[in-house]
Write a structure and sequence with these properties.
Blueprint lengths: L2 H4 L8 H14 L3 E7 L9 E7 L2 H17 L6 E3 L6 E5 L3 E7 H7 L1 H4 L5 E4 L23
Parallel strand pairs: 2-5
Antiparallel strand pairs: 1-2, 1-6, 3-4, 4-5
Helix pairs in contact: 2-3
């Protein structure tokens, strides 16, 4: 047992746990095109960027709210949140992990993935990316009926 557990002190979540909490929050709120960039070998400013797209300003806000709430629940308060009022690009800075939540057109315009193109990239599957499972998957028309 660690000294922190013996003393009943809160433990700090690992970077991997925090990264997973961020991705889980984004997936649950239907973020699009979630990726993480491992910047540890490229810069000293941060270890990871997490990027995702949102469909509207309200979607940006709900994603930012969910990420910050999820981080607080595991004992990690974001150091700084920027762009929350404009809702076009919200940056949640956790020092070693920086989350970028952008509306789709802003993400294309700023092209952070191209800027950091030499960083190892992890792409996360979202429910929107999953293949269709019903008749639509094989090209059959959907049938609607009233009961």
């Amino acid at each position: 047992m660690t000294a922190a557990k013996e003393a009943n002190l809160p433990t700090t979540p690992s970077q991997e746990d925090r990264l997973q909490a961020v991705v889980d929050a984004l997936q649950e709120k239907k973020a699009l095109d979630i990726v993480s960039l491992d910047l540890r070998q490229l810069t000293d400013t941060t270890d990871h960027f997490v990027l995702c797209s949102a469909t509207t300003g309200q979607h940006v806000r709900s994603l930012a709210d969910e990420v910050t709430e999820r981080l607080r629940n595991i004992g990690d308060r974001p150091w700084h949140v920027e762009g929350y009022e404009a809702r076009r690009w919200v940056l949640v800075d956790c020092v070693d992990i920086v989350i970028h939540i952008l509306q789709q057109d802003a993400r294309q315009f700023y092209a952070l993935e191209r800027l950091w193109g030499d960083a190892p990239k992890t792409t996360y599957v979202t429910s929107w990316d999953a293949p269709l499972a019903g008749p639509e998957a094989v090209g059959e028309p959907s049938v609607f009926a009233r009961s």
